[in-house]
Amino acid sequence: MIGLHPTSVNDSYGEEISIVIEKLKSANDFVAIGEVGMDLYWDKTYLNQQLAVFERQVQLAIDYQLPIIIHCREAFDYIYKVLLKYKEHPLSGIFHSFSGTPEEVDKVMAFKHFMFGINGTITFKKSTFPETLRHIPLERIVLETDSPYLAPVPNRGKRNESAFLRATLVKVADIYQLSPEEVAYQTSQNSLKVFGMLK
After folding, report:
1. Which end of the chain, N or C, is less surrounded by CB atoms within 10 Å?
2. Whether the predicted model's global pTM rises above the 0.90 cut
């Protein structure tokens, strides 16, 4: 993937975006634009710049017919307003590390080609998201690590790695009351679909 992460956006974002565009022009082995989006959790100093960068990278995803991997932290309404104009467009992607409200789930569900990225936070004791996840069809989720962060229980606090994905899988299977094998198969199919690798 290639993209300018929102926490790296500042007043010189034009130079950074130029690098992204040059890389896209010179290579054809990228599978997505990402991780891009908006992050207003720590700082809102560059809110307008983040918004401009996100809009530009959505357009790049459309131009290069690539899915977009969206980082959204304390910024759902801004991101939703940008995406709304593409509701009927075949733009696809993943709402990475999704832990939104039921209302936000409903809004994302309206974008037929987008998946919800579920990672280790679903295993956290204080997470309220399992109840919300039950309302998302299994055909609309992918499993993620967010490595090196957000390691699932029982490895919480450790450096996350791909091997830990099994704990997330087992928790998701429990929520859906399905076997881990069924969930593994469907979420793998979903991932292949998003990245254009499903024949």
Report:
1. C
2. yes
Rounded CA gap, 14 and 60, in Å?
14
Q: How far apart are CA 174 and CA 168, in angstroms?
A: 10
Summarize pLDDT for 114-163 with one digit per residue, the tens: 999 999 999 999 999 999 999 999 999 999 999 999 999 999 999 999 99
Nearest alpha carbon to residue 190 among 112, 127, 98, 130? 112
Alpha-carbon distances of 45 from 7, 8, 17, 54, rounded to whole Å: 11, 12, 19, 15
Q: What is the dihedral of CA 24, 26, 29, 31, to 10 degrees?
A: 0
Torsion angle of the four alpha carbons 50, 132, 107, 30, in this order, in degrees rounded to the nearest 10: 50
C-alpha dist (Å) from residue 197 to 31, 32, 174, 191, 194: 9, 12, 28, 8, 8
Q: What is the spatial order of strands in the sheet that 93-95 belongs to?
A: 33-39, 68-73, 93-95, 114-118, 141-143
In total, the chain counts a number of residues equal to 199
CA distance 87 to 66: 16
Task: State how far the Cα of 172 lies from the Cα of 138, in Å rounded to an integer.
Answer: 9
Structure tokens at 45: 């100093």
The whole-angstrom separation of Cα 63 and Cα 148 is 31
